[in-house]
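User: My instructor asked us to take a sequence, write out its structure as tokens, and then describe one feature of it. I'm not sure where to start. Here is the sequence I was given:
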Amino acid sequence: MAIGPGDGTVVRAHLDAMSNTDTTDQTPHRTPGPWDAKPEATSARETAPAPAAEAPIEKDQSLVWAMLSTALMGGFLWWITGSAIVAGAVLIGLFVHEAGHALAMNKLGMGPARIYIIPFLGGLAKARREPKSEWDGVLVSLAGPAFGLLAMIPFVGVWMVLGQGDWLMGAFFIAMLNLVNLVPAPPLDGSKALGPVLTRVHPRLEQIVLLVIGVAVVWWGLTTGRFILAAFLALSVFSHLKRGVWRAAWGTLSWPEAGKSLALYLLTLAVCAAAAVGALMPMTGGDPAGAVQLGLNYLGFGR
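Assistant: Let's start with the prediction itself. The structure tokens for your sequence are:
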């Protein structure tokens, strides 16, 4: 019989009354028989700890939906870029980027990680377990952009052989995919790499900085015609605002870990930016300043 919250007092009083009665065994004493349980065996069963519950294993994405979502993402990229080569480059770059996250998750005991393609938005690497520390979380967030640059290599190689500009543009957009992900705006990788560092300085600093940058990125998306991205980021920024301070006071990064996190973030940011500029330099006759200006034009700045 189920006992509601209001029945607890009555039950406890009833049990207390029973405990005050004489519960001495009134049965006559007898010698235990061969089929009686041994006292030590009974106590061992009673005190044996229950086995720990296994964490539920999430079902894999169905093959049909994985193929459909990838096809939708590829078609969307082809539509907005106007080039099958560039669209294929971004799609491959997306897989390699998320593979970097997944490899880091598996290496740090967060796996088995899974990769999902989200049509019209991007990709997601999902871990089975939370990171053991903020430092592990920083490493996972930076592994995607750092590893993702490897996808540029085959496209640069084909361009060197064929000389077709679309292959070089594919390499550029792969670099930009990883560079934009380092912007410290939720839910991009940059917010997960730089956020714990800001929290180490002051718990409110992360919330304020990510909010300001997030609003700026949403405005950039709206003014440059990237409406789907702007809407997605706006929802993320709103969720960030509702959540308040993300971590407990001053987080769990030590000051040395905060310093290493900042250094790794800046290094990854510099490498991604250099890769993007390097991919454009052949189009500007080897002029770095011209390549930077061309890259800013693609982002909607300097027009």
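For the description part of your assignment, you could build on this observation: The radius of gyration is 29 Å. Try explaining in your own words what that tells you about the chain.
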